Every structure is written in structure tokens, then in C-alpha cells.
Amino acid sequence: MAVRKALIGGSASFGSCLVQSDCELVNDCLKGQKRSFEVLIRRYERPVRAAALDVLGDYHRAQDASQEAFVRAWQKLPTLRKRSAFGPWLIKITRRCALNIAQRQDKSVQNPPLLAQAIEKPNGKLEDAKQRLLGAVMQLPKDQQQLIMLRYFSGQTVKETASSLDRSVGTITKQLSRAHKRLRIILERSKQ
Fold it and tell me: Looking at residue 139, which CATH number applies to its domain?
């Protein structure tokens, strides 16, 4: 991601940073450790792109909004009061950036949201079953959407997801179970 190189200046050795919570990484960033922000970028780049794509419906504009969101987050990081809430805060910034881009775009061209592109390659097509599943995920409450995005879209383990959200592994497991149950209900209703 271009913003990663611009903010950080190259590749990083992540090592122990991957097991740090968002709160610890934000604290490190505020102490001047720019590499910690690169870990946050890697952790959130797919959920951020998915949130932007949900608003814009255009993969390339969503990438622009994603990069703008990371730059704004970097600039506004000292204003973040609850550091463990970095993920939801970043998603709000992303949605604002995407809305700003949407307001600037030509109103005559409206593309339907293609959230699937946030998961697949930009020119990839999803099968019908995967599109239905993705549509069901977008019907979940925002907190469950975020949980599913971190766990499955970003490929985080349950432990990494718990660390990202500053919650216990047991809490994340229980919340994932509830989200899976709700997804099954949504998918069953969509078959009828």
C-alpha cells in the first residue's frame, strides 16, 4: 500500500508487534515508533477498504478513500481518547473520507456497491454463494460486521482479533458464535 511506504518509509520487521493490542500499538506510535503504525495499517487495510467500498461501490475510489483514511488517522492519532477503540475509530474516519469522495464524484454515475472486491482481486468475480454470504454479512449489526471482517476478511486468528479489539478470547469466541448464528438465519431467509 502506497500510504504505508509514505508514512513509514520501507518494509518493517514485525516480530512481536503482531501480538500487541491496538492500544499498545497506538501508544508506541505516539511515542514516535512509526513502525507500529505500519502494523496497524496491515491489520486494518482490508476492513478499511471494505468499509470504503461499501460506501463508494467503486474499487479504485475505495482505495483512494482507504489511503486518505490512514493518513488522517496518523495525523489525528493524538486526539484518540480511547486507544483500544482504534479499529472502530478508523472505520468512522474511513466512512467520512469515502463520503467526501462520493460527494465529489459525478452524481450521474452510480455503481452498485461491490464489497466482494475488497476480498477478491479487483477484477475477480465471486460465485453466487459467496455473494449471498457477503450480502448476509453486510446485514449484520456494525459490531458483528467488524468482528467478521477482522476474523475472516483480514485472516486474523481469534487471539489476534481479541487483541485488536482489546477483548478476551472467550468474549470474541462467544460473539463470533452469535454472529454465525445470525448469519445462518439471514441466509435461510434469503433462500425462501
Answer: 1.10.1740.10
